[in-house]
Amino acid sequence: MKFLSIRELKSKSAQVWKELPAQKEMILTSNGRPIAMLSSINESNLEKVLKAFRLARATNAVAAIQYESTGQGTDKISMDEIDAEIQAVRDERKS
């Protein structure tokens, strides 16, 4: 996988677009840190790529929530406690 800086993208954009299909992905960096990913797509695989990307993003979000929950100890809450929390929020919204 190729890494390129924002400066390289600006100065060599034609070359980057030419190389992207062969590279498949390129990581865009700012001050040496990754900030974005360029991915080669086409009309025939656009929907599949978007679906896979969104699924990966959602999976990552769930994993982050689970990790945070474990750190806070809320991963040990019982179903009764969860139901009580939900009911309390619903009651609060009604009033």
Beta-sheet strand percentage? 15-25%
Report the mean per-residue pLDDT as an integer: 94
Tally of strands: 3
How many separate structural domains? 2
Number of helices: 4
Biggest sheet layout:
3 strands, mixed
User: What is the CA-atom radius of gyration, in angstroms?
Assistant: 21 Å
The spatial strand order of the largest sheet comes to 1-2-3
Low-confidence stretches: none
Principal-axis shape equals elongated
Give the helices and strands as they follow along the chain.
EHHEEHH
Q: Structural class of the secondary structure composition? A: alpha+beta
Helical percentage: 55-70%
Span of the ends, CA to CA: 55 Å
Summarize the structure in words.
By secondary structure, this protein is an alpha+beta fold. It has 2 domains: 1-40, YefM-like domain (YefM-like fold, 3-Layer(aba) Sandwich); 42-95. The protein is 63% helix and 18% strand. It has 4 helices and 3 strands. The protein has helices at 6-11, 13-23, 46-72, 79-94; strands spanning 2-5, 25-30, 33-39. It has a 3-stranded mixed β-sheet. A hairpin with a 2-residue loop joins strand 2 (25-30) and strand 3 (33-39). It is elongated and about 60 Å long. The N and C termini lie far apart (55 Å).
Write the layout of secondary structure elements.
Blueprint: E1 2-5, H1 6-11, H2 13-23, E2 25-30, E3 33-39, H3 46-72, H4 79-94
Parallel strand pairs: 1-2
Antiparallel strand pairs: 2-3
